Each structure stands twice: as structure tokens, then as C-alpha cells.
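Sample pair:
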Amino acid sequence: MKWSKYIIVSLLVLVILALGSLLYNQYRILKNDLETNRRMMELTIPRILSDLYDHMMFNQTLGHLVGEFQGTEDFSFSSDSELSDSLQVALRKGIDEVLALNYPKLEYRVDGFVSDEFGCMIHRNHRPELPKAMNVLKAENHLCFCMILSNTLDIAMTYTNKEEVIIGESFQIIRQSFLLIIIVMVAFAYTIYTINKQKKLSDLKRDFINNLTHEFKTPIFSISLAAKSLIKKQEIATSEKLKSYVHVIDSESKRLQSQVDKILQMAVIDSGNFTMDPTLIDFHELIHEVVSSYCVILEENEGQIELDLKASNPIVTGDEVHLKNVLFNLVDNSIKYTKHTPIIRLVTSDNSSHLTFSITDNGIGINSVHQKLIFDQFFRAEKGNTHTVKGFGLGLSYVKRIVSLHQGEISLTSTPNQGTTFTLKLPRKP
């Protein structure tokens, strides 16, 4: 596959959209989790005061300190304050023990009021001269210990890092979300890097093959020209042995020229500069021309080609040269890959929109594993450690590309040691 900059940009856009969708979904999950944690904390905070009341009910140290208190005093401390007052130390110890069971990372500030007057001050609202005490009594998170202590102790708790604790509860989801996003981005970056690297290697290989084949064309032409000149020499014409040598040189140079031409044709197609010359073609006439070219070869091998041309309208629109090359490749393969007497059957049929052509042989067949790769460029099915027929593995790749450029389809069915059928489906107007 050719990875152009447009394909890479399209992939980048798709990945960005995927990342955007992932981020949105992760945001929704995180938002729902934060809301859930926030609701749970709002439900838990009132229980903290209740648990603190139950926990301090039998705290003799706190009861003794409050019971011995004389006068009236307000105080304030936080979870990280350095304390020296025994009452505040005992109170913070009890608070920390309760919070350790619920939210150990929750930070707080305590505003308190202690007095030697007995009875809960929340029921005595006649002390306007004590505004700090009134603020404690009116606070949302207020707790009165007057029921278990001989004197009055009221506290109000303010939680200073509620949002941080809520976010901390969702830290696992946040970490997983960021980790997933990073993995996706790294995988995409590595994919782009690999694609770009493979593209450079592919371009380098293609340029090398193109340059090499171009360099071959001149010496091949020179060899072919020299062989034709030698055949006309009197010395060669009178010597059967020399004549056979010259014929071998001439035939092999033509075979090499054919392989070089195939490579150049595939290079032109791969470059994207390939253009076709579509005309109206009589496909039956094209078949007859190709079959006539193989008459001599078939006679030498005692083979035959059976024609069953049933298409009522054999006219299609396409490039005559390249469609003829497609037929040449298919017929040539049917002859080359047959161990015994080649029997080849060519069949056509049609409907209003398509013409169908099939070629069936009695050759060596193709196993199911190789059938999936048979149209790949440079692929050749092996037998043992050697190829039974020499070549570059470009013929069927070329056939596939030309049929695709005509907006057609090609398929095959094959059974090893029984034969192969290739089927082409060509639209009348690609």
C-alpha cells in the first residue's frame, strides 16, 4: 500500500477525533465520579460529628479538663497547628482518631467555646456579649458536649480541603485516564514513525529497482540487436550448433526484456503517473488475438485452448494494450504452471453492466495459503527451496492493478494438482 501524505493526514485527523472522543468520555466518567464522591462526603461529614460525640463520650481526660475549667474562653486551632493547651490537644486527638476511619487526609479548623456554666449554650441564647460563642452555635457543623460534660463545650468544624480530598478519591480514575491517553498518543506516534520509515525504505527500493532496470535496457537491446545480426551471418547460418546458441541468446534477451518491461510498468503504476487510454474494445477479438499468439507454443506442448465465448455483447471500455497484457499474463501462467499437456478453457458471459471472463487450466494449482498472497508484488509460490518457473512475481500483481484501474474485480479458485480458475469481472464503462 502506498502511504501518501494525504493518507497520513487522514489518519492523524482520525486519531485526533478518537482522542477527542476518548477525552470527552473520560471527562464524563471523571465528572460523575467526582459528583459521587462529593455526595458521599456530604453524607459522611454529619456522621463525623456523631462519631466524634460517641468517641469522646467516655474520654475521661477531656471530661476532667472541661470539668475543672473556670470562666469562659473561646479557642481555635487547625489540624496542623502546634498545640500546648491540654484541652485542645485532647480534643484534636479524638478528632484525628475519628477522621482516620473516614477521611484521614481531610484537613480542618476547629472553632470552640468552653465555659464553666452548665448546660448547652445553644439553649441559652441570652449571651450577646459573647459573639464568638454565638458564631460557634450558629455554625453548620456544630457539636455540643453539654450532655456528657459537667461544663459547657461547643465546637464548630470547618473542613479546609474538601475539594482536594474529593479529587484525591478520584485520583485512580484520573491516573488511568491520563495513562490511557499517553499510551494511545505514543502508539500513534510510533505508528506514524514506522509508516514513514517503511515509506522511505519502499521509495528507496523502488528507485533502486527503477534505476537498475533502466540500466539493463541498453545492454539488453544491444544483445538482442547483436543476436539478430549474427543470425544473418553466413557462418552462423551454416552451423546448426552456432545457430542454436544465437537463438538461445535471442530468446533469453527477449525474456529478460519482458521482465524489465514488467518492472517498469509496475513502477509507473506505483508512481501515480500511470494513465490509461480508454477505447471501445471487442473483448472476444482481444481473446482471439492472444490465443493466436500461443498457437505455436501449444502445438509444441500438444496442448489446446477451448473457447466458450457466450457473451452476447463483448464490447467494453478500457485500455486495449493493458487488457491484452492481462490476457497474455493469464494464458502464459496457465501454460507455464502445467506439468502435463496444457488444456485451457476460456469462457465469457455478460449482463447489462458487466462482462465476465474466466480462464481455467489443469495446472499444478495454488494452495489456500498462497491464494491470499498470489496478487502481491514480487510474491512467488515456492516448491521446496526452488521456484519451478523463473520470474519476478510481477505478472499477477500487474493483472490485479490493471483490473482495479478498470474498476473491475478478479478472483480465483484453485485446487492443488487439479488446476486453477481466474475470473475477471469488468464493467462496460469504468
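The chain has three domains: 9-169, 197-271, 278-427.
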